[in-house]
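Form 7-S
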Amino acid sequence: MARLAGVIRGHVIRVCVAGVTGWMGRAVAEAIDEAPDLELVAGVSRSARFTTVSEAIDAVPTDVLVDYTHAAVVKRNVLAAIERRVGVVVGSSGLSAADDAEIDARAQEQHVGVIAGNFTLTAGLLLRLAAEAARHIPAWEVIDYATAAKVDSPSGTARDLAERLNGVRAPALGVPLAETQGAREARGATVAGSQVHSLRLPSFTVSTEVVFAREGERLTIRHDAGESPVPYVAGTLLAIRALPGRVGLTRGLDLLLS
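Output:
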C-alpha cells in the first residue's frame, strides 16, 4: 500500500536527485524510475543536464529533492530547495547540529518538510535500540568508522546516534573529562553529550557502534554498511513517500518506521 500512496492520493511525486551520477544517486534514480507513484523529473551533477539544484528546480516542477552529494554542498542544496518550497530527503552526511537548526527553522517558515539521516533499516534500528538501552544502562561511548577518504567527522549516523542518546540522558563518566591526564583528545570528541571516536581507514564504508557498560557487563550495538547502495534505496523511497504533509526537519529513519 505504501508503494502506491502517491497514486492513491491522485498525485505522482516528482523527484529531482542531486548527485544523480554518483554511487547512491544512480541507484536511487533507477528505483524512482521503476516506481509507479514516483517520477524522476531531473538530475543534478557536474556531468548532468543540470549542474545546480537551483537551476534544476527552477526549470522543472519538483515536489521533492533527494540529496546524495557530499559535505561541501549539501547544506546549500537543501536551503536552495527549501527557499523554492520543495521538500528534501537528505542522505548526505556533513550537516552539523547548527545546520539542522537552521534548516528546521527555514523549513518551518516555508511550510515544507525535510527528512534526513542514514536510510538503511539497520541504522534506523540502531537509533531505536540504543535509545532504549540508554534508559537502563548508564554509561556508553560511540565509535564511528568510515572510509579513509571521508572528509567529515563524525559521520551523520554517529551524530544522529549521539543526539538521540542525548534525548534520553547524559552518560556517566568514570573520570571527568577535565581531569584527563595526557592528551585530552584521546578521549574523543564530545558530540551531543557522548564521547565519539572517529576512525577513518580503507575498507570501511560506514559503521557505527555504541558500547554500553555497567558493572560486570557490556552491550554492543553496531550497524555496518556494505559496499552496495541497495540497503539505502528502500529507506530513501520510504522517506520520499513520507514527506508530503510534513513540516520542518525529521532526522532518523526510525521515526518513519511503524
